[in-house]
């Protein structure tokens, strides 16, 4: 049973704010929500992680509603270099296995000039 | 130097050959992983290890084996390579009980089986 659902692809233009939503209806009490970014032929890299409410760092913001059944990754003022695949993972902090923190197909974001 | 190093970076081999992909890390992490990525798809977990004496099968372990030679080394073997194992392979590490549990990836090993 997939733990997360996110759009397959999104298009945006330079300078716009991009919001990618991930659904995780069966999130458990101990689960965190983590987002990774992957450029072609490179390994994914960590962007942001949260448990509830809002988390912000120098790269992105993560919005998590009170019921935690979804989350939204927000990328402010995207540039062409933000074109990548974005993965939403849900699970126990630091535990990557067959049940937790699984990489699905991700969302392929294309930023156009 | 990279914290997670994979060798070889590229390998072309023939069906039936034995192949080993090696991973070493200088991050001091206990947890190590091998992932496979096919073109246009996400990452699939092959094997993972939470410490030197711990080996676990991932979602696609058939046709693969691993060895955790030391805390810093985790190798992936294809005993008899077949063409559908052509893919990009990533090694990753994470720390237990510290911070966000972030995964740190190597640069990838591109394997082509003819």
Please supply descriptive tags for the structure shown above.
heterodimer, A: 113 residues, mainly beta, 5-stranded mixed sheet, 4-stranded antiparallel sheet, 0% helix, B: 114 residues, 7-stranded mixed sheet
Short description:
By secondary structure, chain A is mainly beta. In chain A, 0% of the residues lie in helices and 48% in strands. In chain B, strands 2, 4, 5, 6, 9, 10 and 11 form a 7-stranded mixed beta sheet that branches. Chain B has a 4-stranded antiparallel beta sheet with strand order 1-3-8-7, with no helix packed on it.
Give your account of this protein's structure.
The complex is a heterodimer of chains A (113) and B (114). With 113 residues, chain A is mainly β. In chain A, the strands form two sheets. Chain A has a five-stranded mixed sheet, with no helix packed on it. Chain A starts with 8 loop residues before the first strand and ends with a strand. The model of chain A has no long low-confidence stretch (mean pLDDT 92). Chain B has 114 residues and is an all-beta fold. Helices cover 0% and strands 54% of the residues of chain B. Chain B is built from no helices and eleven strands. In chain B, a hairpin with a 5-residue loop joins strand 4 and strand 5. Chain B is globular, with a radius of gyration of 13 Å. Classes of the chains: A mainly beta (113), B mainly beta (114). At the A-B interface, strand 3 and strand 4 of A face strand 4, strand 5 and strand 9 of B.
Mean pLDDT of chain A: 92
Total helix count of chain A? 0
Strand content of chain A: over 45%
Pair with the biggest interface = A-B, 24 and 30 residues
Percent strand of chain B equals: over 45%
């Amino acid at each position: 049973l997939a733990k997360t659902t996110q759009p397959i692809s999104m298009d945006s233009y330079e300078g716009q704010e991009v919001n990618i939503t991930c659904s995780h209806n069966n999130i458990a009490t101990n689960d965190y929500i983590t987002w990774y970014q992957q450029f072609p032929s490179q390994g994914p890299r960590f962007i942001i992680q949260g448990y509830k409410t809002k988390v912000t760092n120098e790269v992105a913001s993560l919005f998590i509603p009170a019921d935690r059944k979804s989350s939204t990754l927000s990328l402010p003022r995207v540039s062409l270099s933000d074109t990548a695949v974005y993965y939403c993972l849900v699970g126990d902090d630091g535990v990557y296995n067959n049940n937790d923190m699984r990489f699905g197909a991700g969302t392929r974001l294309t930023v156009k000039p | 130097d990279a914290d997670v190093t994979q060798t070889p970076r590229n390998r072309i081999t023939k069906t039936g050959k034995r192949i080993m992909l090696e991973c070493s890390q200088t991050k001091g992490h206990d947890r190590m992983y091998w992932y496979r990525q096919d073109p246009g798809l996400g990452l699939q977990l092959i094997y993972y290890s939470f410490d030197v004496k711990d080996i676990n099968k991932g979602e696609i372990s058939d046709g693969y084996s691993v060895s955790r030679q030391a805390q810093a080394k985790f190798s992936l073997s294809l005993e008899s390579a077949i063409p559908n194992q052509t893919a990009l392979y990533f090694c990753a590490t994470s720390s237990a009980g510290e911070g966000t549990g972030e995964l740190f990836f190597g640069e990838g090993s591109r394997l082509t089986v003819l």
